[in-house]
Specification:
This protein is of the alpha/beta class. The chain has one domain: putative 2-phosphosulfolactate phosphatase, CATH 3.90.1560.10. The chain is built from 10 helices and 10 strands. The protein has helices at residues 33-42, 54-63, 93-96, 108-114, 129-136, 155-168, 184-196, 203-209, 211-218, 222-228, and strands at residues 4-8, 24-28, 48-50, 69-74, 77-78, 101-104, 120-124, 141-146, 236-240, 247-252. A 10-stranded mixed sheet has the order 1-8-2-7-9-10-3-6-4-5, sandwiched between helices. Helix 8 (203-209) crosses helix 10. It binds the ligand O=C(O)[C@H](CS(=O)(=O)O)OP(=O)(O)O. Ligand L3UKIRZJ is lined by residues 29, 31-33, 73, 76, 86, 105-108, 147, 149-150, 212, 215. Pfam families: 2-ph_phosp.
Length: 254
């Protein structure tokens, strides 16, 4: 299949001129927003609505007849008055099953909103890597958007972008093929993933060295790195329900 894959190493690379209307975009925020969404999905959450700021999230929760859980972080910490923070460990079935939630985080939910004009929108983490790859395999134009950390490239997101490309194994990765269908950022991500060599070096170690990982360790969330470094332990995708609305649901595979 002729698949073109582009990677935005930070959301700011998605300028308003960037035409996403035909694209399937995959948003990556390994540490930790998209890992939280996958975990919540696995735990039986209802719908997940993302908001760019704290005020909008709180207002939305107040206006919703059956109050959703208010979730997210600022400076890695839970937000005052919110129900849950941004640690996947918090998203247990006991807490989230059959509940809707509203999520706002520093980088992840912003990246989602930067790509809202995409035809199709998914949120990916290492936790649901295989399910995400299966869901986008036949998309002709794939746009992978790394959330980064406060405007900077973050290694953990680039690694997952590379892992997705590696598993898709597009013809452009073969030496003999023309390289037109993989942009240079996609090639950088793929090389980073190959070099990380997760067969000999645990993925958690690479995450610990990344910008996002170092920030989380400093904030006391080191255990989350191991949680977010588990590969394909969740067999479902996180996908936007309707174009135009930042509402997501977990779709179990099979
Ligand atoms: O708490 C998190 O997981 C991060 C905080 S930051 O990257 O250190 O600012 O937020 P996220 O939006 O999930 O990257």
């Amino acid at each position: 299949m002729n698949q073109s894959i582009s990677v935005s190493l930070t959301p700011s690379e998605l300028s308003p001129e960037c035409d996403l209307h035909q694209a399937c975009s995959v948003i990556i925020d390994v540490l930790r927003a998209t890992s939280v969404m996958a975990t919540a999905g696995q735990s039986g959450v209802g719908r997940m609505t993302t908001c760019e700021n704290v005020h909008a999230a709180a207002q939305l929760a107040d206006q919703t007849p059956i109050r959703p859980l208010l979730c997210g972080e600022r400076h890695c910490k839970p937000i005052d008055g919110f129900d849950l923070g941004n640690s996947p460990a918090e998203y247990t079935p006991e807490r989230v099953a059959d509940r809707d939630l509203v999520l706002t985080t520093t980088n992840g939910t912003r990246a989602i909103h930067a790509a809202m004009r995409s035809r199709r929108l998914l949120a990916a983490s290492f936790l649901n890597l295989n399910a995400t790859v299966a869901a986008v395999r036949s998309e002709p134009h794939l746009q992978i958007v790394c959330a980064g950390t406060n405007g900077q490239i973050s290694f953990e997101d680039v690694l997952l972008a590379g892992a997705i490309i590696d598993r898709l194994d597009p013809p452009a990765l073969q030496d003999s093929a023309p390289s037109g269908h993989l942009d240079d950022s996609a090639r950088i991500a793929w090389s980073a993933w190959r070099q990380a060599d997760v067969n000999t070096r645990p993925l958690g170690q690479s995450l610990a060295q990344s910008l996002g990982g170092r920030n989380l360790i400093e904030a006391g969330y080191e255990a989350d790195l191991q949680r977010c470094a588990q590969v394909s332990t969740i067999d479902g995708t996180i996908e936007r329900v309707d174009p135009g609305e930042a509402v997501f649901e977990f779709r179990r595979r099979g």
